[in-house]
Amino acid sequence: MRESQQQEERREPRPDQSEPVYATIKRTSERFGPSVTTIYELVGEGKIKARKLGKRLLIDQASARQFFDSLPPSSIQPSARRRRRAEQAAQRS
C-alpha cells in the first residue's frame, strides 16, 4: 500500500467511532485549541501518544482527547473592578 493511501485511511473515522484514529499536528491543534508548538511539547513529554509515518507525525486522537478531558475545569474569577461594579449596580436596584 502506498504511503499516501495509508495516510488517507488514517484520517477516515473507523465505522465504530466518530473521530479519526490519527490526525496531523495541525489538525489536532485546530481540533483541540492549543498551538502546534504546544502539541509537539505534549508529545515530547509523553502526555499525548503519536506515531511517525514517513516524515509526518500523526497524533493519536483518543490519547489527545483523554489528555484534554483530564484537565481541571477553569475557575476564572471576575476582576475586583468588575465585582465592585456588579455590587454597586445591585445596590442601586
How is the secondary structure organized here?
Layout: H1 3-11, E1 22-24, H2 25-32, H3 36-44, E2 50-53, E3 56-60, H4 61-70, H5 80-92
Which structural traits does this protein have?
alpha+beta, 3 strands, Multidrug-efflux Transporter Regulator, Chain: A, Domain 2
Q: How would you sum up this structure, described in words?
A:
This protein has 5 helices and 3 strands. The protein has a 3-stranded antiparallel sheet with strand order 1-3-2. The protein has one domain (3-92): Multidrug-efflux Transporter Regulator, Chain: A, Domain 2. The protein is an alpha+beta fold and 93 residues long. It is elongated. It has helices at 3-11, 25-32, 36-44, 61-70, 80-92, and strands at residues 22-24, 50-53, 56-60.
Helix content: 40-55%
What is the CATH topology assignment? Multidrug-efflux Transporter Regulator, Chain: A, Domain 2
The tally of helices reads 5
CATH architecture: Orthogonal Bundle
The proportion of residues in beta strands is 5-15%
Strand order in space, largest sheet? 1-3-2
| Sheet having the most strands | 3 strands, antiparallel
DSSP, total strands: 3
Overall, the morphology is: elongated
Number of domains: 1
Mean pLDDT: 85
Category by helix and strand content: alpha+beta
The H-and-E topology, N to C, reads as HEHHEEHH
